[in-house]
């Protein structure tokens, strides 16, 4: 099976712009979770989508949003970018059952100038 | 909210020495998962523990889940340069199994 794929792999934006990141889960996986990874804060949970519905949400401002499509692919959007949004954004897919293993994608490295 | 703390944050060892990282949760966990992230890579699942007091081994790696299901440890015997990376613990709170909360990770450097 193909692994989790994320596009783009690298992105450079300027403050105030918005960005959309994409994640394609492993075939058959219905849950997609998004994480922000920074050197200072580690892995921070953003949100989880299951069957096109947001099932869980982390403590991030409303500028961070996401959605999931019927084929389980997911996108996350960050509006009005700030310098502090520079990070590695990881998505992880799982079957969607309780206590599942997360399979991570390679991540999108976002740099905000 | 639920917090998962990991110590130490960094560890430098000589190849062949042992290494241990500890994970402590502010709340009781339903499970504990361990992931490894190589430099420049993404987290890769290593193992999951769900039972109180559970111990699992993978070659030189030994994982433990505390009796109270609030702490865990990962011990590596006789480290090798291939063990370099950041080790994360993560758990679901027993009161809310939805979110997987990660510790900050322990970065291991191994000197040959």
Structural notes for this entry:
The complex is a heterodimer of chains A (113) and B (112). Chain A is mainly β and 113 residues long. Chain A has strands at residues 5-7, 10-13, 19-24, 31-38, 42-50, 53-57, 64-68, 74-78, 87-94, 103-104, 108-112. In chain A, strands 2, 4, 5, 6, 9, 10 and 11 form a seven-stranded mixed beta sheet that branches. In chain A, strand 9 and strand 10 (103-104) form a beta hairpin. In chain A, 38% of the residues are buried. The mean pLDDT of chain B is 94. Chains A and B meet through strand 5 and strand 10 of A and strand 5, strand 9 and strand 10 of B.
Brief account:
The complex is a heterodimer of chains A (113) and B (112). Chain A is mostly beta strands and 113 residues long.
List keywords for this structure.
heterodimer, A: 113 residues, mainly beta, 7-stranded mixed beta sheet, 4-stranded antiparallel beta sheet, 11 strands, 0% helix, globular, B: 112 residues, 6-stranded mixed beta sheet, 5-stranded antiparallel beta sheet
Order of helical and strand elements of chain A: EEEEEEEEEEE
Let me know the number of strands of chain A.
11
For this entry, what is the oligomeric state of its chains? Answer: heterodimer
Count of alpha and pi helical runs of chain B: 0
User: What is the gyration radius of chain B calculated from CA atoms?
Assistant: 13 Å
Query: Share of helix among residues of chain B?
Result: under 10%
Count the beta strands of chain B: 11
SS summary, helix count of chain A: 0
Structural topology:
The complex is a heterodimer of chains A (113) and B (112).
Chain A: E1 5-7, E2 10-13, E3 19-24, E4 31-38, E5 42-50, E6 53-57, E7 64-68, E8 74-78, E9 87-94, E10 103-104, E11 108-112
Parallel strand pairs in A: 2-11
Antiparallel strand pairs in A: 1-3, 3-8, 4-5, 4-9, 5-6, 7-8, 9-10, 9-11
Chain B: E1 4-7, E2 10-14, E3 19-25, E4 32-37, E5 44-49, E6 55-58, E7 61-65, E8 71-76, E9 85-93, E10 96-102, E11 106-111
């Amino acid at each position: 099976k193909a692994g989790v794929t994320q596009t783009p792999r690298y992105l450079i934006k300027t403050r105030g712009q918005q960005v959309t990141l994409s994640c394609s889960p492993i075939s058959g996986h219905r849950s997609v979770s998004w994480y922000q990874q920074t050197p200072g804060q580690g892995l921070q949970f953003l949100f989880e989508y299951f069957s096109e519905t947001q099932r869980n949400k982390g403590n991030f401002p409303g500028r961070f949003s996401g959605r999931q499509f019927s084929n389980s692919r997911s996108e996350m959007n960050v509006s009005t970018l700030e310098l502090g949004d520079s990070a590695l954004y990881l998505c992880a897919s799982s079957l969607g059952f309780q206590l599942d293993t997360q399979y991570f994608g390679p991540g999108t490295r976002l740099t905000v100038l | 909210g639920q917090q998962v703390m990991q110590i130490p944050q960094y560890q430098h060892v000589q190849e062949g020495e042992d290494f241990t990282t500890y994970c402590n949760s502010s709340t009781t966990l339903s499970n504990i998962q361990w992931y490894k992230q190589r430099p420049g890579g993404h987290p890769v699942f290593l193992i999951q523990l769900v039972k109180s007091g559970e111990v699992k081994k993978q070659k030189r790696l030994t994982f433990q889940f505390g009796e109270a299901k609030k702490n865990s440890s990962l011990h590596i015997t006789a480290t090798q340069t291939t063990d370099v990376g950041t080790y994360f613990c993560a758990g679901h709170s027993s009161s809310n199994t939805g979110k997987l909360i990660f510790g900050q990770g322990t970065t291991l450097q191994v000197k040959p």
